[in-house]
Amino acid sequence: MTVTHVNPDSLHRNPAFSQGVIVEGPGRFIFVGGQNGVDGEGKVVADDLAGQTRQALLNLIAVLEAAGATPADAVTMNVNLVAPADITAAFPVVGEVWGPHPAAVTVLQVADLGPEGALVEISAMAFVS
User: Fold this and answer.
1) At residue 30, what are phi and psi to the nearest 5 degrees?
2) Superfamily the domain 2-128 falls into
3) Which of 31, 98, 104, 107 is surrounded by the fewest CB atoms within 10 Å?
């Protein structure tokens, strides 16, 4: 088994974590760490859930693509929202950015996320055969 850490140049780097991880054997599992609605410098891009969700998904897609996968390969997603939150505000953005690629999804409401002002964090696992 080979483990490769994925950190696209378009995303900020942090020595404490990888943006994604590829596990190769017969097929490849790709684990994408929690993506916030932040730009390449780690700054929150919007004050609203829809805007941050858009960027978090674009960041997630960037990691998947850097690992040789697409949203269609995602098998699970975890969404953390700062409470209280109405996730329906993000639904149109998910359809627009992520497309028709439903994965098993878990949604949690949390007290806080890492970056100040962050409202959403999305992680995923994908499999490519």
Assistant:
1) -120, 120
2) RutC-like (3.30.1330.40)
3) 104
